[in-house]
Amino acid sequence: MNKMKKYIAVSLAALAVLIAVASGTASAADNVSNGTTICNVVGADFELDSWSNEQYPVINLFGEEYVLLFSKDDDIRDSHVNKLASLVLDSNETNTLKPGENVDLGNGYALEVREIDIDGENVWLELTRGGQHVANKTVSIDTDENQTWTVTLDNVQGENNVVVMKVHVKQLFVGAEISIVQIDGIWLIDYANARTLNIGDKFGEFTLEQILSGVDESNLGGLVFKNASVADNASVADNASVADFSASPSPEKGLVKFTDKSTVSPISWYRNFWRSITMKNK
Prior knowledge:
alpha+beta, Tick-borne Encephalitis virus Glycoprotein, domain 1, eight-stranded antiparallel sheet, five-stranded antiparallel sheet
């Protein structure tokens, strides 16, 4: 009888280990996401203090930050959530330039000083890409508002009046032999390589499932992605969590027979049997 109790104890202990392992797998699966990731749009501050009352919309897609296309006169909550461009530059560094000189902005973009008028109140600036003209404007420094040139373009991923660059002119100096301009703020997106994400498009291992439009300043919208491989693994783990075992001890042979009655076939097994058990009988 004592021997029978010993084998029953061993079988129950081993069974408990198996069930504990199965339960642990189920618990881990409950904590695993179903593969859905929501990337939210947030408002980012410009580096230049003169633009401190403004923000631009950005979204982080799996470690890569993008700027959403937005129109000059619209609130950033009305930005086009699925139309993105990389940020080329956001700088408050002061550049001192003479007429004919330019600033290399990166990605083939450049800002050139074409001319400074003799009164020292206006400067003619030009944005180029790959050496080709994009936009130009005569910027005045008579008021703070006029010191900023906001460059907007049409037909950027099908959208019009899209803000692609901002330039702030700090001051002008006209001398007898030399004239200079100080530009202390430049913000630029790579509009030429902007992209539109549509439902079903792939972004690395993720697939775009939903586009969430902005509602207010606290909810600027977002993109919902799904990773199919994570979702499939979570589904398998959930199904594998249904475990059921029975044990039949055989004292004569010194064996314990286990019968798997689980509803789903396991993909792997883990067994951990105690080497010895010391029991005290009453």
